[in-house]
């Protein structure tokens, strides 16, 4: 029997066990400085290991998920995507070489050019035995697409046979459905941080964020600082989580 998804990864009261981030604002950051969009993406993607380190040093944070590319972003110009892909490849090599975090990739890698997809697969393979903080990367990701994919997978699984568990037990079905998501086995986010001042999730972890606390930071992602992370964590600690109760 599939267990329901874990609501929280917290190991210390007042501290989010799982922090999820929407990395927004690279292009605006570059435009404000008269730089090319490639430079904005390069600087923004290069900040990811720094943020992982900051989260790692906050006692109680056990998992971080960062959204670096949506499926909609794939509609951008070939030139911009080429620059992004170079930054992604560099990021994968840095994370693999660090041997500090256990990397898991969430998203449709088949939508990426083969060398880029292989870079993400390689970093997963090279860090799967690392006993450090879990570092998830959401790339070519879309929450609705993930849910539709999970529903199709579940339908295929039970196409020819009905489960022995009672169909009326929706809690069982919830856990079974979650086991077909890209985040299967991972705790749901306790806290979601989005930079750049935009106050929406844009399809980020649509299923998983049902009970997450949200924090919107005005700063553009390349300018995101350790103080901003601490403010988000302080905001989280000041809230009384009810988890829908």
UniProtKB/TrEMBL annotation:
<feature type="binding site">
    <location>
        <begin position="25"/>
        <end position="28"/>
    </location>
    <ligand>
        <name>substrate</name>
    </ligand>
</feature>
<dbReference type="InterPro" id="IPR018520">
    <property type="entry name" value="UPP_synth-like_CS"/>
</dbReference>
<comment type="function">
    <text>Catalyzes the condensation of isopentenyl diphosphate (IPP) with allylic pyrophosphates generating different type of terpenoids.</text>
</comment>
<feature type="binding site">
    <location>
        <position position="213"/>
    </location>
    <ligand>
        <name>Mg(2+)</name>
    </ligand>
</feature>
<feature type="active site">
    <location>
        <position position="24"/>
    </location>
</feature>
<dbReference type="InterPro" id="IPR001441">
    <property type="entry name" value="UPP_synth-like"/>
</dbReference>
<feature type="binding site">
    <location>
        <position position="41"/>
    </location>
    <ligand>
        <name>substrate</name>
    </ligand>
</feature>
<keyword id="KW-0479">Metal-binding</keyword>
<dbReference type="GO" id="GO:0016740">
    <property type="term" value="F:transferase activity"/>
</dbReference>
<feature type="binding site">
    <location>
        <position position="24"/>
    </location>
    <ligand>
        <name>Mg(2+)</name>
    </ligand>
</feature>
<dbReference type="Pfam" id="PF01255">
    <property type="entry name" value="Prenyltransf"/>
</dbReference>
<keyword id="KW-0460">Magnesium</keyword>
<feature type="binding site">
    <location>
        <begin position="200"/>
        <end position="202"/>
    </location>
    <ligand>
        <name>substrate</name>
    </ligand>
</feature>
<feature type="binding site">
    <location>
        <position position="29"/>
    </location>
    <ligand>
        <name>substrate</name>
    </ligand>
</feature>
<comment type="similarity">
    <text>Belongs to the UPP synthase family. Z-FPP synthase subfamily.</text>
</comment>
<dbReference type="InterPro" id="IPR036424">
    <property type="entry name" value="UPP_synth-like_sf"/>
</dbReference>
<feature type="active site" description="Proton acceptor">
    <location>
        <position position="73"/>
    </location>
</feature>
<keyword id="KW-0808">Transferase</keyword>
<feature type="binding site">
    <location>
        <position position="194"/>
    </location>
    <ligand>
        <name>substrate</name>
    </ligand>
</feature>
<comment type="subunit">
    <text>Homodimer.</text>
</comment>
<feature type="binding site">
    <location>
        <position position="76"/>
    </location>
    <ligand>
        <name>substrate</name>
    </ligand>
</feature>
<protein>
    <recommendedName>
        <fullName>Isoprenyl transferase</fullName>
        <ecNumber>2.5.1.-</ecNumber>
    </recommendedName>
</protein>
């Amino acid at each position: 029997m599939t267990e329901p998804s874990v609501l929280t990864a917290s190991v210390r009261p007042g501290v989010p066990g799982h922090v999820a981030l929407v990395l927004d604002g690279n292009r605006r950051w570059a435009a404000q400085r008269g730089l090319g969009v490639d430079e904005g993406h390069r600087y923004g993607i290069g900040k990811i290991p720094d943020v992982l380190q900051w989260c790692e040093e906050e006692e109680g944070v056990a998992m971080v998920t960062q959204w670096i590319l949506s499926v909609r972003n794939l509609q951008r110009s070939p030139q911009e995507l080429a620059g992004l892909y170079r930054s992604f490849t560099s990021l994968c090599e840095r994370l693999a070489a660090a041997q500090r975090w256990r990397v898991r990739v969430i998203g449709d890698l088949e939508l990426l050019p083969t060398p880029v997809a292989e870079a993400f697969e390689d970093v997963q393979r090279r860090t799967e035995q690392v006993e450090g903080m879990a570092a998830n990367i959401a790339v070519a990701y879309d929450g609705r697409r993930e849910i539709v994919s999970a529903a199709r997978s579940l339908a295929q699984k039970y196409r020819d046979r009905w489960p022995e568990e009672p169909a009326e037990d929706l809690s069982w079905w919830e856990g079974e459905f979650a086991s077909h998501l890209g985040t299967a086995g991972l705790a749901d986010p306790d806290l979601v941080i989005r930079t750049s001042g935009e106050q929406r999730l844009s399809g980020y972890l649509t299923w998983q964020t049902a009970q997450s606390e949200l924090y919107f930071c005005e700063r553009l992602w390349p300018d995101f600082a350790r103080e901003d992370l601490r403010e988000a964590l302080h905001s989280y600690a000041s809230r009384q989580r009810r988890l829908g109760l």
